[in-house]
Specification:
With 118 residues, this protein is of the alpha+beta class. Helix content is 16%, strand content 23%. The protein has helices at 33-42, 101-109, and strands spanning 11-16, 22-27, 59-63, 66-67, 84-91. The chain has a five-stranded mixed sheet, with helices on one face. A hairpin with a 5-residue loop joins β1 (11-16) and β2 (22-27). The longest helix is centred in the first third of the chain and has 10 residues, at 33-42. It is globular and about 65 Å long.
Length: 118
């Protein structure tokens, strides 16, 4: 846990890796997703050694099923102070486009969700 923020003024994040390993970190509401990725990379937990990545630039946070873009701050997400918020931490080179992948795939194949009239 970081000592740079008093716990009552900070946001406690429990980060979960794909492997299921977890670790808690304390951040300021002004910290962005890329600040968090860099902090975690620089303070990589000993028991996460097998999941070590080559660069903080490929670490991505997922909150409520959505990837957080690098400039999004914890304050902008309106996360509660003094409580633990769970996020997933994954290694991924690029983020998906904002509009859904499934929709684009359907357009390419010509499928639709429409009904068939007999």
């Amino acid at each position: 846990i970081s000592s740079r923020v008093p716990s009552e003024l900070g946001i406690n994040l429990r980060l979960i890796l794909v492997s299921g390993k977890t670790k808690e970190f304390l951040f300021s509401p002004n910290d962005s997703a890329s600040d968090i990725a860099k902090h975690v990379y620089d303070n990589w937990p000993m028991d996460w050694e097998e999941e070590q990545v080559s660069s903080p630039n490929i670490l991505r946070l997922i909150y409520q099923g959505r990837f957080l873009h690098g400039n999004v701050t914890l304050g902008a997400l309106k996360l509660p102070f003094g409580k633990t918020t769970v996020m997933h931490l994954v290694a991924r080179e690029t983020l998906p486009e904002p509009n859904s992948q499934g929709q684009r795939n359907r357009e390419k194949t010509g499928e639709s969700n429409c009904c068939v009239i007999l």
